[in-house]
Design a protein that fits this description.
By secondary structure, the protein is of the alpha/beta class. The chain has a single domain, classed as 3-Layer(aba) Sandwich (D-Maltodextrin-Binding Protein, domain 2), CATH 3.40.190. The protein is 51% helix and 17% strand. The chain is built from 15 helices and 9 strands. Strands 1, 2, 3, 4, 5, 6, 7, 8 and 9 form a 9-stranded mixed sheet that branches. It is globular. The chain starts with a helix and ends with a helix.
C-alpha cells in the first residue's frame, strides 16, 4: 500500500467517525396500546428496526410500556403533552379529527374494495385537516367489526330487542344505535365482560380478534355472530409535526415509506388473523343473511344518511365518501 495516500485515507476515516459520533440521535417516543405479538405490535417493531437502519442509528423509536396499558384517550393526552407520536384506532383518530368517525359508521362500508376506495378519497382530506399540528404517516385498514349477541341480529328490527354495550366515548354511534331502537349500555370492552356475565347486556359490535382472545369467558354467553360485516376500523400512525421536522429532511420520505409499508403488511396480517379468530370461535352460530334483510339495512342506512348522519358530520367528508362508494359500486 502506498504511503502517499494512506494518511489522507486515515484522516477521512477519522472525520467520518467523528461526524457519526457527533451526530444527534433523535428518539421518537410512540404511544401504542396493542396486544403483544399481534400484527400491529410486530409491525411497530419492524418499523423501529427500519428507522434505525435507514438513518444509520440517528433516528430511534421507542414504545413506553405504560402506553401499552393506557386507553387511547390517555395516549392522546400523552401525544399532546410530550410524546412524539401514537398509533391510533378509529376512535382515537376521531378525537383529533371528529369527522373521521364517518369512515366507521355501521352499515355504510361493507367490503374491502369499498373501504379501499373510501380511504383513497378521504385519506388526503384527513391528512390536510391534521397537518397544522400533526403528520399523518399512514392510514390503513385494521379489520372489521361484527355484531356478537345472545340472539341473532338479522334485521334492523332485531336491535330493538337488545341491550347493546358501547364505548361511552363514541357518542355519535350511541345516538345512531338508539335511533334504531337499541337500548345502549355504555362501558369499555373490559366492562362488557362484567355486563354480559350479569345479564345487563345482550350484544356488542366488536372485532372478532378481540372476541377470540376472551372466548373462554364468553363461550355460552354469546351465541351468534352476524354473517355480515358491520363497519371497518382504522389504524393511523400520527406524529407531532414538530417531532417529525426534527428529522433531517432527506430522511423523511424514506421513513414515511417505511411506515406505509408497515401499515400495508399489517393489513394483510390482520385479515389473516381475523379469519383465524373467527375459525377459533367454536360453538358460535352465524346463520346466512335472509334475502330481504339487505334491503331493510339499506333503508336504515339511507334514513341515517338523510337524518342524523347529515347533522353529525361535515358535507366535505360525507360527499367524498358518497363519491367513493358510488364508484366502488359501479354507479358512476
Amino acid at each position: 500500500m502506498s504511503k502517499s495516500w494512506k494518511l489522507p485515507a486515515l484522516v477521512l476515516a477519522a472525520l467520518a467517525l467523528g461526524g457519526a459520533l457527533g451526530a444527534q440521535v433523535i428518539t421518537l417516543k410512540i404511544a401504542a396500546n396493542v396486544p403483544a405479538n399481534s400484527p400491529w405490535d410486530l409491525g411497530l417493531q419492524r418499523m423501529a428496526a427500519e428507522f434505525d437502519r435507514l438513518s444509520q442509528g440517528r433516528v430511534r423509536v421507542v414504545f413506553p410500556p405504560s402506553a401499552r396499558v393506557a386507553t387511547e384517550s390517555e395516549n392522546i393526552r400523552r401525544l399532546q403533552l410530550g410524546y412524539d407520536g401514537a398509533l391510533l384506532s378509529t376512535f382515537g383518530l376521531a378525537e383529533l379529527y371528529p369527522d373521521s368517525l364517518a369512515l366507521s359508521l355501521p352499515g355504510f362500508i361493507s367490503d374491502d374494495a369499498e373501504f379501499d376506495a373510501v380511504l383513497a378519497e378521504v385519506g388526503p382530506l384527513i391528512k390536510t385537516k391534521l397537518e397544522g399540528r400533526y403528520s399523518l404517516l399512514a392510514l390503513s385498514k385494521g379489520g372489521w367489526i361484527r355484531y356478537f349477541s345472545r340472539s341473532p341480529i338479522m334485521y334492523p328490527s332485531d336491535l330493538a330487542s337488545l341491550h347493546i354495550s358501547m364505548d361511552p366515548t363514541s357518542d355519535k354511534l350511541v345516538s345512531l344505535m338508539q335511533s334504531a331502537g337499541a337500548k345502549v349500555v355504555t362501558g369499555s370492552f373490559a366492562d362488557f365482560l362484567l355486563q354480559i356475565n350479569s345479564g345487563s347486556v345482550d350484544a356488542i359490535f366488536q372485532s372478532p380478534i378481540y372476541i377470540a382472545t376472551l372466548w373462554s369467558w364468553l363461550r355460552g354467553k354469546i351465541a351468534y355472530m352476524s354473517p355480515f360485516r358491520v363497519s371497518p376500523f382504522l389504524g393511523a400512525m400520527v406524529v407531532n409535526k414538530a417531532s417529525w421536522e426534527r428529522i433531517p429532511a432527506e430522511l423523511r420520505p424514506r421513513l414515511e415509506r417505511t411506515v406505509a409499508d408497515m401499515a400495508a403488511r399489517s393489513e394483510v396480517d390482520s385479515a389473516r388473523l381475523e379469519e383465524e379468530a373467527i375459525a377459533s370461535l367454536d360453538g358460535i352460530k352465524s346463520p346466512a343473511q335472509p334475502p330481504d334483510s339487505q334491503e331493510k339495512w339499506a333503508r336504515l342506512r339511507a334514513d341515517w344518511r338523510r337524518g342524523p348522519v347529515q347533522a353529525m358530520f361535515s358535507g366535505d367528508i360525507l360527499d367524498r365518501i358518497d363519491r367513493a362508494l358510488a364508484r366502488a359500486r359501479g354507479a358512476m
